[in-house]
Amino acid sequence: MLGADGLIVENLTGLTDLPARVRVGFFPVPLAGADAAPVRAVAWT
Hints:
Layout: E1 23-28, E2 39-44
Antiparallel strand pairs: 1-2
């Protein structure tokens, strides 16, 4: 997935409250020494 420039995002909540079409952005929170990064997920219309 990542070799093909894919993105894996898990454990999002509140998605049923969004309209059918939204723009999304995923902004990683850099953590020193981590092998993964939590993100700030943002949706806007």
